[in-house]
Specification:
The structure is a single chain. This protein has 12 helices and 19 strands. It has helices spanning 43-54, 85-94, 107-115, 124-130, 133-142, 156-166, 193-199, 257-273, 308-311, 316-325, 357-361, 392-403; strands at residues 35-39, 58-62, 76-78, 97-100, 150-153, 170-174, 184-187, 207-211, 215-225, 231-233, 237-242, 245-251, 278-287, 292-298, 338-345, 350-351, 366-370, 375-376, 381-389.
Length: 412
């Protein structure tokens, strides 16, 4: 592991050993329906809200986009910015528990809600670690977990130095607010630095760099931790990424039992290292020499776990609601030997409703999930398809055939 002077940062004292014991108790029983508040109104909030409604909860969403995907299942919509302290207080006052669809709300604002007695899960302490990917990597490394070599970079000159030290290629990343490839750039040599620096706006955004990891497979899992300290893990899956965007997920991953046990243990330790509560996505690399490295944590339900809606006894979304409401966790067992998911990405600018739905639904065994986004953009996640099978190849074949007729955007 390579450490630069920038890596020797001091984690805030409250975050050094996040403890499950510090989590607030579950809401007391009352005749009032339990209410879940969610910061963010995208597809993750939509699917979480659908599970919460099934469990008898009311749902309140905070998002300034009235057409966001979660507007349909929400019982109440607060159309204000998630970075507005007054709006956050309004949400918290209406809910028993406040959850997060993404990691973009500043942890200091979440801490203010906690100081006023509101329950926020994952906690502000956890979010303070996870939402800055450089701090997240440092926390994981401090916990004894392997991660790709990394370093903070404040200038082009430091990037050149990092390339000489870590070797090319490098992956340049935003420390905060990057997702679906929008915060990453691969640098094959020093000649790529200027374009990547401009695209990620290194003048205004804090950046860091990682050594490119040569891997056999990209693995992922969902770990769900409850208020009482209990946790469950979902099967290890293999993901296929293109341009830093997930295209397919295959469950279970084609790996040995020994690697599965190792990766599962690493994922649990990673979530414990940040004091996670609820469903967390854990992305990992299986390297050429058989080592398992942690890539990133997502402090929320995750794209790699969407297959669980059909494939598992209790989905990542339902277990997320169960965990943060303080209810018993459900089984993560798969209903079939294998499952696959194909992400549906926008092809062009245009309407969000796709062409080809009838042909998609004609494929037996395929399950279509559209997110209800008003507009399509190239590479934007518009929905997904899952399928079950006796083998991964069978499931992937069904999902791929169902996805083929769907087109998002203007096509003449």
């Amino acid at each position: 592991m390579v450490r630069s002077r920038n890596q020797m940062i001091q984690l805030p004292s409250a975050l050094e050993n996040p403890s499950l014991e510090t989590r607030p108790p579950a809401p007391a029983h009352s005749r009032k329906r339990p209410t879940l508040g969610i910061i963010g109104g995208g597809q993750l909030a939509r699917m979480t809200a659908q599970s919460a409604l099934s469990l008898g909860c009311d749902v309140v969403i905070l998002d300034d986009d009235a057409d966001a995907p979660a507007s349909t299942p929400a019982a109440r919509w607060i159309r204000k910015s998630a970075n507005d302290p007054a709006a956050l207080c309004e949400l918290a006052q209406a809910a028993d528990v406040v959850a997060l669809e993404n990691e973009f709300v500043d942890a200091a604002l979440l801490a203010e809600l906690e100081e006023r007695g509101h329950c926020v899960l994952p906690s502000a302490a956890t979010m303070r670690i996870v939402q800055d990917k450089f701090v997240q990597k440092t926390a994981l490394m401090t916990a004894g977990l392997q991660v790709p070599p990394f370093a903070a970079v404040d200038s082009r000159a430091e990037l050149i130095s990092a390339g000489e030290r870590l070797g090319w290629p490098l992956v340049l990343k935003k420390r905060r607010d990057g997702y679906d490839g929008k915060g990453n750039a691969t640098l094959h040599s020093a000649e790529d630095i200027d374009a990547a620096w401009e695209r990620l706006d290194g003048y205004r955004h804090a950046l860091y760099v990682e050594a490119f990891c040569s891997f056999q497979k990209e693995l992922a899992t969902i770990v769900t931790s409850s208020r009482d300290g209990s946790s469950v893990s979902y099967p290890l899956v293999e993901t296929v990424q293109r341009d830093h965007i997930c295209h397919t997920v295959a469950a279970p991953a084609s790996i040995s039992d020994a690697v599965a046990r190792t990766a599962g243990d690493i994922a649990r330790r990673a979530v414990e290292a940040v004091g996670g509560a609820g469903s967390f996505g854990v992305e990992m690399f299986l390297t050429e020499d058989g080592s398992v490295l942690v890539n990133e944590l997502a402090p929320r339900v995750h794209n790699s776990g969407h297959y669980t809606i059909e494939a598992c006894v209790c989905s990542q979304f339902e277990n997320h609601v169960r965990a943060i409401m303080g209810w018993p966790l459900g089984s993560t067992a798969m209903r079939a030997p294998a499952a696959a998911m194909v992400n549906l990405l926008g092809h062009a600018e245009g309407p969000g409703q796709p062409q080809g739905i009838a042909d998609c639904l004609a494929v037996a065994g395929a399950h279509l999930h559209l997110y209800g986004k008003a507009r399509s953009r190239p590479g934007r996640k518009m929905g997904h398809i899952t399928a079950l099978g006796s083998t991964v190849d069978e499931a992937l074949n069904i999902a791929t055939r169902a996805a083929a007729p769907l087109h998002f955007g203007n096509f003449s």
